[in-house]
Amino acid sequence: MEKLKIAEIISTVTNPPIICIPLFLIICLTLSFDANGFDLSEFMVLELVSIMFASVLPMAIILYWAKKLNTDKDISNRGDRYAPLVVGVVSYLAGFFLCMILNLNRFLTLLLLCYAINTGVVLLITTRWKISVHTTGLSGPVGALIMLLGPIGALFGILYPIMIWSRVLLKRHTLAQAICGAVQGFFLGVLEMYLFMYLFNMPIEGLISLEMSLLYILAIIITPIILGVLSYRPVNNSKIAFYLAEIAFSVVFLLFTPIEVFAIYIIISLTSILIGHFAGEDFVWFKVLNSS
After folding, report:
1. CA 35 vs CA 31, 32, 38, 153, 206: distances in Å
2. Distance separating alpha carbons of residues 229 and 244, to the nearest angstrom
3. Is 187 in contact with 236 (CB distance < 8 Å)?
4. Considering 21, 34, 145, 241, which has the largest number of Cβ atoms within 10 A of its Cβ?
5. d(CA 22, CA 56)
6. Do residues 39 and 31 lie in contact, with contact meaning Cβ atoms separated by under 8 Å?
7. Is residue 231 classed as helix, strand or coil in its secondary structure?
8. 70: three-class secondary structure by DSSP
9. How many CB atoms lie within 10 A of CB 208?
10. What is the rounded CA–CA span in Å between residue 285 and residue 276?
């Protein structure tokens, strides 16, 4: 029961319109610094736009729709999710066009466009499969923070395995749905950002390179994916198979990536392993890590 309460709290505070509030706060703070220091007026405008179009409006429709359908706040029934996702797309597009009209910060402008497109992709997937909106909603701002802050932004990826545990334990998603949500969001978000900078001729200085951004994303997702594969495709002594795979990827990251990427991989791996060990037998990672 205690684990369910903890998982419920984690699930609530990591709801996409909620988790984006502190993460967008960091994004807007970062964007408001330049060579002349901190621009308070720019920060207030960026924060207002991001809060309104990435949090308040999406959350309002979620709460309204959940109440109208007399369902839970997660809108767990896949078929009931279409309307909130459509409204989310409209909200993000409205924020994007407002940023274009007001000539606001390019990064936030393109980020809201990425949000709109990725939410549309989630909507299409949802017509067939209940991919996790929670983990997708985490990957958007974390991917943005990676591009802006590199390893500091990637540290927020520690929330990824924690969120997977929460959503799966509560039976809101399967393990595959929880893992794939972030994988889809991370890669699409970062690739789209660089693509839109080119298509709209809106270069943004000071960003982490595309190659480095993708390496940080790989460092975040590799261990949860390995645990996921071994959960669905058990082998003789999954524990040994897992640790052999971890050692192999550790060597690859250590030899072929910057030390910061390797450090992120180790941090996320240790977090995932700790979750697997202490989650108990009701979470499948425990069985992988304790097989004989």
Report:
1. 11, 10, 9, 21, 12
2. 14
3. no
4. 145
5. 13
6. no
7. helix
8. coil
9. 20
10. 5
Can you tell me the distance from the alpha carbon of 183 to that of 221, in angstroms, rounded to the nearest whole number?
A: 7
What are 139-184's pLDDT values in tens digits?
A: 999 999 999 999 999 999 999 999 999 999 988 889 999 999 999 9
Task: Return the residue matching tokens 């709290």.
Answer: 9
User: What are the tokens at 177?
Assistant: 């749905």
pLDDT per residue over 249-262, tens digit each? 999 999 999 999 99
Do residues 62 and 80 touch, judged by C-beta distance below 8 A? no
Q: What is the separation, in whole angstroms, between the first and last Cα of the chain? A: 28
- For residues 18 and 16, what is the distance between their CA atoms, to the nearest angstrom? 5
Instruction: Quote the CA–CA distance of 175 and 8 in Å, as a whole number.
Output: 16
Q: Identify whether the C-beta of residue 68 lies closer than 8 Å to the C-beta of residue 187.
A: no
